[in-house]
TrEMBL record:
Its EC number is 1.5.1.2. It is found in: Cytoplasm. The keyword Repeat does not apply. Belongs to the pyrroline-5-carboxylate reductase family. This is Pyrroline-5-carboxylate reductase. It comes from Amycolatopsis sacchari. Residues 3-96 form the Pyrroline-5-carboxylate reductase catalytic N-terminal domain. Residues 159-263 form the Pyrroline-5-carboxylate reductase dimerisation domain. InterPro entries: 6-PGluconate_DH-like_C_sf, NAD(P)-bd_dom_sf, P5C_Rdtase_cat_N, P5CR-like_CS, P5CR_dimer, Pyrroline-COOH_reductase. One of its GO terms (molecular function) is pyrroline-5-carboxylate reductase activity.
Length: 265
């Protein structure tokens, strides 16, 4: 049995615990730490998983998944340093934080794998990108891939690409939610009831996402197929181009990448 402890059961930590249970792990194999007692009690009630202190998690777990905000990492590393050994695998989900930070602060030889997942984990559709640190072996990478495969898809990337990955797929779901929110607002502007606008847009998003996932065509071909000559769509596209939506997207994702780099300093 591999015991997995999630340090920081917030949004992504809870999503991972829920996903691992759905993927077939038993609650006995899982632990978590959480500094809000009410959140800890809620998680134990809901999933039957035990909440423990960081030091106990470090002693009992084979895999420690760090899911606190990057700004909160310092006390976690201080608590882990005397408690982890080279047999414990540390998996960091934290934006920006390099494996070298963990390697510097933890005992020599502790294996570290950096992962950037995303919240569609809650529906088994995460996109996770993983990068091994200096002491992580192929076996460690395989174990992390196996864990994350139960909550979505996994790719391995060089660690130098992790800030870009964070900006693209880590934050990516937020961009889609933002777009959906704006499109629902447009429905309200055009006089549709909110419930109708929501249904129209959410199902259009689900359908478009399935087409993107299943089709071998480039997204531009899929868009062209919707854009009839002298029709409605091209009028909307002209407005999007006029307002610089593509350039805004490039700038937005570059800004997210820059923030990830900054968090790692
Ligand atoms: N949300 C997302 O979509 C994604 C997040 N990530 C990464 O995951 C990490 C967590 O993000 P997210 O889940 O959004 O953040 P949250 O703030 O929701 O979750 C972190 C939780 O950990 C708690 N915490 C902080 N320090 C400790 C500690 N020492 N011991 C126990 N618990 C602690 C926090 O408490 P408190 O509320 O008091 O701070 C909070 O409840 C971040 O590093 C982020 O970069 C990665 C990919 C996607
Ligand atoms: O916004 C953040 O910093 C985190 C990392 C990627 C998604 N959410």
């Amino acid at each position: 049995m591999t015991t997995i402890a999630v340090l920081g059961a917030g949004k992504i930590g809870e999503a991972l615990l829920a996903g691992l249970l759905k993927g077939g792990r038993s609650a006995d194999e899982l632990l978590f730490t959480e500094r809000h007692p009410e959140q800890a009690a809620r998680i134990t009630d809901r999933y039957g998983i035990a909440g423990v202190e960081v030091e106990e998690a470090a002693k009992r777990a084979d895999v420690l998944v760090v899911a606190v905000k990057p700004q909160d990492i310092d006390p976690v590393l201080t608590a882990l340093a005397p408690a982890v050994g080279p047999g414990t695998l540390v998996v960091s989900l934290c934006a920006g934080l390099p494996t070298s930070l963990y390697e510097r602060r933890l005992p020599d030889g502790v294996p570290v794998v950096r992962v950037m997942p995303n919240t569609p984990m809650v529906v088994g559709e995460a996109m996770s990108a993983i990068s091994p640190g200096t002491h992580a072996t192929a076996g460690h990478v395989a174990l992390v891939k196996e864990l994350l495969s139960s909550v979505g898809q996994v790719i391995e990337v060089p660690e130098s690409q992790q800030d870009a990955v964070t900006a693209l797929s880590g934050s990516g779901p937020a961009y889609f939610f933002y777009l959906v929110e704006a499109m629902i607002d447009a429905g309200i502007l055009l006089g549709l009831p909110r419930a109708v606008a929501e249904k129209l847009i959410v199902q259009s998003a689900v359908g478009a996402a399935k087409m993107l996932a299943q089709s071998t065509e480039h997204p531009v071909i899929l868009r062209e197929a919707v854009t009839s000559p002298a029709g409605t769509t091209i009028n909307a596209i002209r407005e999007l181009e006029k307002h610089g939506v593509r350039a805004a997207m490039l700038d937005a994702i570059e800004a997210a990448r820059d923030r990830s780099v900054e968090l790692g300093k």
